[in-house]
Amino acid sequence: MNVIADAYRDVEFLCPASLRAQAFVQYGISSVFRYEYGAVFPDLQLFPNAGAFHSIQEVFGTYDVSTAVPNKVTLSRTFQTTIANFIKNPNQSPAPNWPKYVLGGLTRTLARLAYNGNVDMGNFVQAATSNSQDTPCTLFLA
User: Fold this and answer.
1) Which of 1, 4, 53, 115 is an S-S bond match for 38, by CB 3.0 to 4.6 Å?
2) DSSP characters for 45-62?
3) Which SUPFAM superfamilies match (predicted)?
């Protein structure tokens, strides 16, 4: 089951995001901020080990408060602040530790958001190299 889920993720999300980010930078857009979302909450797991559930509720604060754990409430506030920061100044990092995306894959410019329960503004972003995530995408370029 994980192989199918991973392939779907790669084809639908990961590789298109990688290719778009690369194209934007190549065509001179200097404020590219690339991310990968990883928050996992028990009330959103449709099946065991489903991984991150991607929905807009955390951004707008419209999640089910009766089942929300404290980390989800904190994540919602952190996400709202991050998006507001980006709207205020799209040329500046929207959150601490989130650098602009650069080509090459060896510099830590891919933001891993809300992984491992990190939902506070100070630890929300874990910078990673894009090549650490983009290995499956080499199949698209072959």
Assistant:
1) 115
2) -SSTT------SHHHHT-
3) alpha/beta-Hydrolases
